[in-house]
Amino acid sequence: MSKLIAIDGPAGVGKSSVGKALAKKFEINFFSTGEMYRCLAWKVLEQGIDPQDEKAVLEIAQKVKWTYQAQDNVLKVYIDGICPLDKIHNEEVGRAASKVSAIPAARILIMDEQKKLAHLGNIVLEGRDIGTQIAPFSKVKIYLTASAKARADRRVKQLKEAGQNPVYEEILASIISRDERDSNRKIAPLKPAEDALIIDTSDLTLEEVINKVLEVATKNVW
Ligand code: DC
After folding, report:
1. pTM as predicted
2. Going from the N-terminus, what domains does the chain have, and what CATH number goes with each?
3. Contacts of 205 (CB under 8 A, 6+ apart)
């Protein structure tokens, strides 16, 4: 039986860590749908285009070719043959990704790509609209949430561990403004599916979250 897990929630809530652990456990692939918006945003910025210039962003979105490669239970995305993972996980590209993802026509093209992955199955899809738009037929839908403060604390810790010197107030403000944009856009806004299991991770360890999800997935579905 093909396995499909949908994980949604705001930025910095631990979706990737949880999703990767689940993919390993079930021997399927993890895919971060946000990386596609980040790749598109990266390409847009590289070409000196404003990420809010709808016409120019759409032109790029129509031209790019998406391909994928699995490695260690993670499906990596390639934009025009390049996998720019080391260049897309920063605040600048994150902000631009949030902007390009709110452009309806560009978004639809990326959503169509992601729907194909959902239909192929045997995948953990992580994003903002997986349970509601990309894979509403998924039997396991998880919505992770946590206070903006808890997420900012985690992000600051991560950045410090990576040798950076983050300013807490700036990180918190960026999380709040990204939540605001992702939740209020007209197309596919961030929200839990009606039948999603909502887990507040503010006071839970990664292990505790993973165990909760595993319980639901194994008991109810597989
Ligand atoms: O998950 P992430 O931080 O890598 O996502 C980057 C941006 O992409 C996020 O601000 C909103 C957008 N996004 C989206 O609109 N829908 C998704 N399924 C995933 C991400």
Report:
1. 0.92
2. 4-215 (3.40.50.300)
3. none
